[in-house]
Amino acid sequence: MHFGFGFKSSTLLIFFIHGLIFTLLLVYKGIRNEHKSSFWLAAFIFLCSMYIAPFMLGYAGWYAKDPYRDILFFIPFQQLFLLPPLLYFYIKSSLNPSFTFQRKDWLHFVPTILYGIYSLIIWITDTIVLDEYYFYAIERDKDLALWYQIAGFIMMVFYLFASLKLYAQYKKKTYETVSFADSILYVWMERFLIAFLGLLLIRILFFILNPEWANFGNKYWYYLAFSILFYYIALSGYIHSIKINLPYLPKLISTESVDFLAEAEAQNEPVKTSEKVAIQITEEDKALQKQLEHFMVSEKLFTNPNLTLFDVASKLNTHPKKVSNIINKGFKMNFNDFVNAYRTEEVIKKVTSNENTSKTLLGIALDSGFNSKSTFNRAFKKQTQQTPKEYFSQKN
Residue 281 — left, alpha, or beta (φ > 0 → left; ψ -120 to 50 → alpha)? Predict the structure, then answer.
């Protein structure tokens, strides 16, 4: 098989092969552990590998030789209408393990189906009916046509924003329902989405400032950057698929939490934050607020590193939504910050009173309910506007 090993073709070949390997690994993980999100990511990574294939093979000399040129022409390697919804459903299934694909979700794939029919018509006409180039008379790959590239670009930007919106909603709900939010937020996912969006915006900027950049040979650096990005999400997603199987990780989505969030969404009333709630506290609210403070202090609920809103609501014998509103209105913070405030206060109390002198600061933080050093540092600085080191150095 002809393949010209140059710098450009070889570097893209490395990412292409790794993409196929990660595809197989993710499919295996999906089958073995019954993770829907792994299948979505496997499909996305596979299509990312196919996306760089025309340029990898083009730099290797395929567009200049038969029958390799026909392979590039008639196989739609760049599925620009399919990549965006696959990414969107991967994000959705990762953030919501109870997500199931509905019949209405097929609407997201209508452009892909239409482009598939279009590609099939071209192949049948040029290879079977006419047995000569008709659609490909100009000998330019249809996947690289300007209208298709622009339409795919618009779709990708749209779905990236939709994915970022999903992540923002997940992040908000997480901070409102668990006290260990920092340890379960998929920060890599947000970074990837923002980086991907930035890459697309840089692409359109280059095209506007330098129209010649649209020429085949001038796009290498864009496709190299794209390869690095999809390799990053493949690696991060695969590591995540391993981590979520470890027994010590807390479960965010319980049956009760799903019912609670579903009820809020059904009423079109998301879990409210302090900025959106008027400060109107009833006598019943005040009584519940005092009861909440009593349990937090007397029983030190905050020392449980896996404490959730549903645990507290069960302790108070009330609905989680009620507790959430009390914390939002009465304390003007979300549940995560509310619990971490008690944990921070407990750390300060133990250190300043010389308790647990045999333990390190991290040991005291873990005893107070924090589950990691990074979470402790972030929460401590948020509560005191100083790092632990700065705060205690100043006190000493």
Answer: beta
- Residue 240 token pair: 């995540």
Spatial distance between the Cα atoms of 356 and 361, rounded to a whole number of angstroms = 9
Task: Mark whether 221 and 93 lie in a shared domain.
Answer: yes
Tokens (6 digits) for 224: 């190299």
Please give the Cα distance from 112 to 161 (Å, whole number): 20
CATH, residue 321? 1.10.10.60
* 29-43, 133-147, 197-211, 316-330: the lowest-pLDDT one: 197-211
pLDDT, position 295: 87
Q: Do the domain assignments include residue 262?
A: no
Length of the chain: 396
From the list 142, 37, 35, 24, the residue with the least C-alpha distance to 92 is 37
Query: Residue 88 pLDDT more than 50?
Result: yes
Tokens standing for residue 387: 């790092």
Is there a single domain that holds both residue 140 and residue 42? Answer: yes
Mean pLDDT of 364-393: 89
Distance, first Cα to last Cα, the chain: 73
At CA 158, angle to CA 43 and CA 113, rounded to 5?
A: 50
What pLDDT, in 10s, does the model give residues 182-232?
A: 877 788 888 889 989 988 888 888 777 766 656 666 788 889 999 999 999
pLDDT digits (tens, 9 = 90+) for 261-296: 444 444 444 444 333 333 456 777 788 888 888 888
Q: Are residues 74 and 12 located together in one domain of the fold?
A: yes
> How large a percentage of the chain has pLDDT more than 70?
86
Instruction: Spell out the residues 6+ positions from residue 130 whose beta carbon is closer than 8 angstroms to its own.
Output: none
What is the extent of the structural domain holding 89? 7-243
- Cβ 59 vs Cβ 221: under 8 Å: no
Nearest to 7 by CA among 68, 78, 55: 55
User: Based on the domain organization, do 194 and 329 belong to the same domain?
Assistant: no
Residue 373 and residue 327 in one domain: yes
pTM value surpassing 0.70 = yes
Predicted pLDDT of residue 258: 42
Q: Are residues 147 and 220 in the same domain?
A: yes
Number of domains in the chain: 2
Q: Are residues 27 and 160 in the same domain?
A: yes
Same domain, 181 and 88: yes
For residue 168, being part of any structural domain is answered with: yes
Measured CA to CA, the distance from residue 28 to residue 220 in angstroms comes to 32
